[in-house]
Structure formats: C-alpha cells, structure tokens
C-alpha cells in the first residue's frame, strides 16, 4: 500500500494552514489548479498551486477560502464573500483517490494525440453531465480550434474529453468566484 499522494499531502497542508488561522471553520475542497502556463512533465515541476475551499465560519460572511503554494512557499489564506462556481464539493479528509496526478499524467502521455506536456491542470468535480468523480482536467489548446479538455478520473482512471464550446475553465482566481446572494 502506498502512502499519501502528492495531492493528499498538499490538501492536508492547505487545510492545516487555513485551520491555524480560522480554527472553527468548516472547509470543503472545491478546486485545485496548478500551473502558470509553463509546460511540466511531472507534478513536482508545477511551481504554482491554488487550493479553493468552500468556507463556513459562524459570524463571517466569507463563503470561499483560497490558499497558494508557489515555489514551495505557502501564502496566507484569502477569504471571499463569493462561492466557487461550477463544481461539487470533494469530501475531505481524507481525500480519497486511486490515481494521483503522476498517474493521470502517465495516462495522458499514453494517449497518442497529446504529445506536448500540459501547462495547466485542474482538479475538481465539475457540474457537467455524466461526470461523477473528481477529475484531473488538462486543457489542450490547438491554435484556431476550440480547446479540448482531457479529464482523467481520480478514482476510476476513466478518460473523457470535452471540446470547449462555451464551456470554459477559468484560469484566474476571480473567474472561479460567483458572488453570494
């Protein structure tokens, strides 16, 4: 049996850091995004990670908490009075998965049509028909064509593709947030 995966270790640390500042808060993982537009061949080469949580703290109007891990350094948590949109909660702890990012990247490399290394990866459980588990989502841009998203299930390893026809995955943290009503 292998030990905790990279994502499990990073999520655990992100939760610990938010709880250190807001010990009574309730957190639900919504999204992780990694990358800065630079190609990477392994999870260890990703220099920027952002972890997004639904946040609940009695007496606070904040609805989301974000925390970064950039070049090996954790930021302070940031709170937003907005919801992280277009994804279901991913239960934690523990973060259950059968496939770590390294496994997902190996699967991606086996797919003959995707030879270039990815520049971004998202980990989320999208609100999209037919998707029922958290996925590693790799945007695969083709100049002059809609972006293809390769989704690899973190539990089943199932591979799906979605062509961007108005379905965009935000690359900026402000695009992930939907104002609270």
Question: How would you briefly describe this protein structure?
Answer:
Helices cover 17% and strands 35% of the residues. The protein is α+β, with helices and mostly antiparallel strands. It folds into 2 domains: 6-95, no CATH class; 101-163.
SSE pattern = HEEEEEEEHEEEEHE
Domains (count): 2
Please report which band the strand proportion falls in: under 5%, 5-15%, 15-25%, 25-35%, 35-45% or over 45%: 25-35%
In helices, the fraction of residues equals 10-25%
- The radius of gyration computed from the alpha-carbon positions, rounded to a whole number of angstroms, is 16 Å
Shape: globular
| Average of pLDDT | 86
Specify the biggest β-sheet. Answer: 10 strands, antiparallel
Number of strands: 12
Low-confidence stretches: none
Q: What would you call the structural class?
A: alpha+beta
Oligomer: single chain
Commentary on this structure:
This protein is α+β, with helices and mostly antiparallel strands and 181 residues long. It contains 3 helices and 12 strands. Strands 1, 2, 3, 4, 5, 7, 8, 9, 10 and 11 form a 10-stranded antiparallel β-sheet that branches. Strand 9 (135-140) and strand 10 (148-153) form a beta hairpin. The model has no long low-confidence stretch (mean pLDDT 86).
């Amino acid at each position: 049996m292998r030990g905790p995966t990279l994502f499990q270790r990073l999520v655990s640390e992100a939760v610990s850091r938010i709880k250190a500042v807001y010990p009574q808060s309730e957190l639900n993982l919504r999204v992780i995004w990694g990358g800065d537009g630079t190609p990477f061949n392994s999870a260890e080469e990703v220099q920027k990670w952002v972890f997004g949580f639904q946040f609940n703290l009695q007496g606070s109007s904040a609805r989301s908490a974000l925390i970064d891990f950039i070049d090996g350094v954790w930021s302070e948590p940031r709170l937003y009075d907005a919801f992280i949109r277009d994804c279901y909660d991913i239960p934690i702890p523990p973060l259950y998965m059968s496939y770590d990012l390294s496994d997902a990247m190996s699967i991606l490399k086996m797919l003959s049509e995707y030879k270039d290394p990815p520049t971004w990866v998202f980990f989320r459980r999208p609100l999209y028909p037919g998707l029922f588990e958290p996925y590693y989502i790799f945007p695969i841009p083709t100049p002059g064509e809609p972006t293809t998203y390769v989704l690899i299930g973190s539990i089943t390893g199932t591979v799906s593709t979605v062509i961007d026809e108005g379905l965009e995955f935000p690359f900026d943290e402000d695009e992930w947030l939907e104002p609270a009503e």
